[in-house]
Amino acid sequence: MRKTVPLNNDWRFTEVFEEAFIKEDFDDTPFQTVNLPHTNKEVPYSYFDEKMYQFVSCYRKELFVPKQYQDNKIFIDFEGVMCFAKVYLNSKLIGEHKGGYTPFSFDITDVVRFETANTLVVMVDSTERKDIPPFGNVVDYLTYGGIYREVSLRIVDSVFIDNVRLESMNLLSNEKKLKAEICLSNHTRASGSASISVKVKDKGNEVGMTSLMVPISESAEHTAELVLDLDESIELWDLENPKLYDVEITLQCGDYVDLYERRFGFRDAVFKKDGFYLNGRKRKLYGLNRHQSFPYVGYAMPKRVQRKDADILKYELGLNMVRTSHYPQSRHFLDRCDEIGLLVFEEIPGWQYIGDEEWKEVSKTNVIEMIKRDWNHPSIVLWGVRINESQDDHDFYQATNALARHTDPSRQTGGVRAINNSELLEDVYTMNDFIHDGGEVVLRDQKEITGLPENVPYLVTEYNGHMYPTKRFDSEERQMEHSVRHLRIINAAAMDDYISGAIGWCAFDYNTHKDFGSGDRICHHGVMDMFRIPKFAAYAYKSQIESQREVVLEPVTVFARGERCIGGVTPLVVMTNCEYVDFMYGGELVGRFYPAKDRYPGLTHPPVIIDEMLGEWGMAWRSGEFVGYLDGKEAKRKKYSEAPIASKLIASADDQVLSSGDMDATRIVFQIVDQEDNLIPYINETIKILVTGDGELIGPSEISLVGGCIAAWVKTKGVKGEIAIAATCSRFSANELVIQVD
Ligand code: GAL
To answer: N or C: which end of the chain has fewer CB within 10 A?
Structure first.
């Protein structure tokens, strides 16, 4: 018996908290009805006071539990509440939790009533409490507030499986094994024995199985370990073939039967002195840091939107790694990383500051909570057990490392620092190397940073960011420099055998505190903006993918005579994975240009750089055309008009079909293009968005284009039907979109 009941819809919410709200008979009808994931306060896109969401609020919900479960154990599971929660059931305090990024559960068996209403009340403190990481000093990101991840009831028998840690062993030999460590709970007053079986299935077909009898004593927790021989034919989880199997663990104890299911991938991942090895093969890691925030609703985005970010990183940016800066992120995001083969470096919450002993205790608990939630994700290859960019603290970091190694002996630890000669207590020296300022030095030799006589496993975990903040609507020259700085660093990382890889700052722009960013509460450090719309730097990464996956041909230009200083568009950097590019100006061939291998010897696909001048200031401007070739054949063409004119407003949705039930959402991108279908970056029309039917818009319905385009998310109302999206500006109406909700 195991049942999970989602509790995501129909909460009653108010932006204050009073003791009276805890009482069962309190009348919450004046409260707002909300669904999870929920943010305690929608914020404007920019220039807002970050204090606006820092308050204590109340969530209430009625629960009905049928009588059939009265002999069961009942838990309530919270996946993420920012940042301190006190939970009451039927006026009784059942528990509290510190920390906004990790899950927590409470046993409500003794308090819950059957066949009648139960009142669940959650006090949510979203202030920046100094006793909880990352708070205590300034932080370069916003943490938002509310019950921003899912909540559910878990109903199990009195003897049940609490958690399972899966570990693959000897994968590079012909004695491949799966070890399962099973945490059991016996809440009965009887001792006896239980039989446990572990089955590995591939699309329903059993490919391995073992079982064991274990003694269990009354009212106790137990750990059983089973090792299963894997067949030679087992496929390994890899970047290109992220093969996943289903593992079923069955517990039988008298009449009690529990089935615990988990997806798993078999892979061997290790950072060595000379780089990172996946399944015995050395792989250079290319990644970006991801904050989990979105415009308006902060962290409160549902499953589909979380998953989409992983797809963007893998497919739109061509990366093989992400760092979940600076905290554990949504399980939906991690699930998708497992499915598509995107490696993850996950770390505990924190930012530069280490607090007092009480604070450190919360941080150590974060280590355990993070690992116990996520230890079965094949995508995760490294635990970050330091507070990002903090100073050394021998005792604290010895403790976090020991906890991580004890909880999950199968993974290495890292811990991100920005200081040289930092004490290496981790398995991997993970370093934010912000040396590149556009000059000669791009990345430092690891020994210069570590101060150690020998090379150690080493990974660059940040670069660029504040060294060159760039907005999507910045000038072409700035965007070009931004793009080539990213290229230079991935080139340098590729050329250094003792750097496992480099993870840049960062994937997406993010809202931040007043002490950072451009004064607008945004750090414009992403290679994409907050709406996940690419800046030119995004193509520095994307152009490294294989052309069989997608042909990339992205000239870093708006193609106009007078955008750059002095005029012209050269040197013109074309991010491409084509073998060569023909460039035509005014219909005449200027030349055939090849990737700049001499300047970027480490890159799989160096950019094509065109230096030819196209006439001088005062001469007529003409059209441009780029044709990329593969195997001697035209593979992609891009044309620029000499006289761009706003021609249409295009609306495009990430998804055509959404799900009813729990909240679902998708992004709609609005852009104005010219007669060649190129985005025109300097148009600043206001767009009016009208959403009708069975969905609603997240954020304002009137927004102005930023850099020629903008996006918005549309969310469901829980019911099946259709959502229609219409958008207009002073010059155009967009194509109408209709999204199904099934
Ligand atoms: C780093 C920090 C990041 C971000 C970045 C901006 O020092 O770890 O969180 O603030 O700088 O470049």
So the answer is: C
State the pLDDT at residue 191: 87
Domain that holds residue 70: 3-156
Answer whether residue 206 shows pLDDT above 90: yes
Q: Are 71 and 137 within one domain?
A: yes
What global pTM score does this model have? Answer: 0.98
What per-residue confidence (pLDDT) applies to 622? 97
Q: Can 389 be counted among the known catalytic residues?
A: yes
For the Cβ of 44 lying below 6 angstroms from any atom of ligand 1, the answer is no
Residues 325 and 379 in one domain: yes
The confidence score (pLDDT) of residue 189 equals: 84
**For a pocket test of ligand 1, which of 466, 489, 512, 521 has the largest count of ligand atoms closer than 8 A to its C-beta?**
466
Q: 82: domain CATH number? A: 2.60.120.260
Mark whether 184 and 40 lie in a shared domain: no
What separation in Å is there between the alpha carbon of 133 and the centre of ligand 1? 16
pLDDT digits (tens, 9 = 90+) for 247-277: 999 999 999 999 999 999 999 999 999 999 9
Q: Does the residue 277 lie in any domain?
A: no
Average of per-residue pLDDT across 74-90:
98
Domain-terminating residue out of 264, 299, 321: 264
Does 532 score more than 90 pLDDT? yes
Q: Strands, E, within 90-191: which ranges?
A: 92-98, 104-107, 117-125, 146-147, 151-156, 159-169, 177-186
433 C-beta closer than 6 A to ligand 1: no
**Residue 205 is part of a domain; what is its CATH number?**
2.60.40.10
The mean per-residue pLDDT over the stretch 207-234 comes to 92
Tokens linked to 664: 């679902």
Cα 449 to Cα 147, 271, 524, 608: the distances in Å are 41, 18, 27, 33
Count of other CB atoms within 10 angstroms of residue 384:
29
Element at 614 (helix H, strand E): none
Residue 79 in contact with ligand 1 by CB distance below 6 A: no
Q: Does 462 qualify as catalytic in the annotation?
A: yes
> 389, 476, 554, 625: which one is catalytic?
389
CA 322 – ligand 1 centroid, Å: 15
Closest residue by Cα to atom 4, ligand 1, is: 140
Q: What region does 12 belong to: left with phi over 0, alpha with psi -120 to 50, or beta?
A: beta
The angle formed by the CA atoms of residues 423, 424 and 430, to the nearest 5 degrees, is 115
Taking the centre of ligand 1 as the mean of its atom positions, its distance from the CA of residue 385, in whole angstroms, is 17
CA of 325 to the centre of ligand 1 (A): 9
136 and 163 co-located in one domain:
no
Say yes or no: CB of residue 353 within 6 Å of ligand 1: no
Would you state the pLDDT for residue 572?
97
Residue nearest to atom 9 of ligand 1 (CA): 140
Q: pLDDT band at 614, cuts 50/70/90?
A: confident
Last residue within a domain, chosen from 156, 174, 204: 156
**Same-domain status, 316 and 187:** no
* Distinct helix (H) and strand (E) counts, the chain: 7, 49
Do 501 and 459 form a contact (C-beta atoms < 8 A)? yes
- Domains in the chain: how many in total? 5
Catalytic residue among 316, 462, 476, 625: 462
Q: What is the pLDDT of residues 452-500, one digit of tens each?
A: 999 999 999 999 999 999 999 999 999 999 999 999 999 999 999 999 9
Whether 432 is in the pocket of ligand 1, judged by its Cβ within 6 Å, is yes
Whether residue 386 has pLDDT greater than 90:
yes
Cα of 361 vs centre of ligand 1, distance in Å, is: 24
Compute the half-sphere exposure of residue 499: CA atoms within 13 Å on the CB side of its CA.
Answer: 28
Q: Are residues 529 and 427 in the same domain?
A: yes
Least confident of 187-196, 329-338, 551-560: 187-196
Rounded to the nearest integer, the mean pLDDT of the chain is 97
Whether 533 and 573 map to the same domain: the answer is: no
